Amino acid sequence: MCSSRLVRSTKLLLLIIMVAALFGCSRDPNVRKHKYFQSGMRYFEQGKYPEAAIQFTNAIRIDAGYADAHYQLAQTYLKTAHLANAFQEFAHTVELQPDNFQARIAMANFLIAGRQYKQAQEQADTLLQKWPNDPQSYETLSSLLAAQSNFPGAIDAMQKAIAVAPNRAQSYLNLALLQIRNNQPDAGETNFRKALELNPKFIDARVLYGSYLQLRGRLDEAEQQFRDAVASSPTDPTLYATLGRFYLSEGKKSQAQAFLTDAKIKFASDSAGYRLLGEFFLAAGDLDQAAAEYSDLSRQHPKDLQVKKDYIQVLILKNQLEQARKLNDEILNSNPNDNDGLLYRGQLQMRDGLSNQAVATLQTLTRNDPENGLGHFYLGNAIAMTGDEIHAAEEWRTAARLRPDLIGPPRALAGSAIRTHDMGALEQAATEIIKLQPQSPDGYAMRAISNINRRQLPQAEEDIKKAIAVAPQSPVGYQQLGGLNLVKKNYLAAEAAYREALDRDANSYDALQGLMNTLLLQNQVEKAIAAANAQIAKSPNNSGFYSLLGTALFNKKDLNGAEGAFAKAIQRDKNSVGAVIKLGEVQAAGGEADKALATYQEGIKNHPREADFYVLMGELYESKKQTTQAENAYQQALTLKPQDAFASQRLASVMARSGGDLDVALTLAQAARQNLPDSPGAADTLGWVYYQKGVYRPAIDMFQEALRLGQKNQSPDSADIHYHLGLAYAKANQSTLARQQLERVLKINPKYSDADELRKELARLQS
Question: What three-state secondary structure class fits 490?
Answer without folding.
Answer: coil
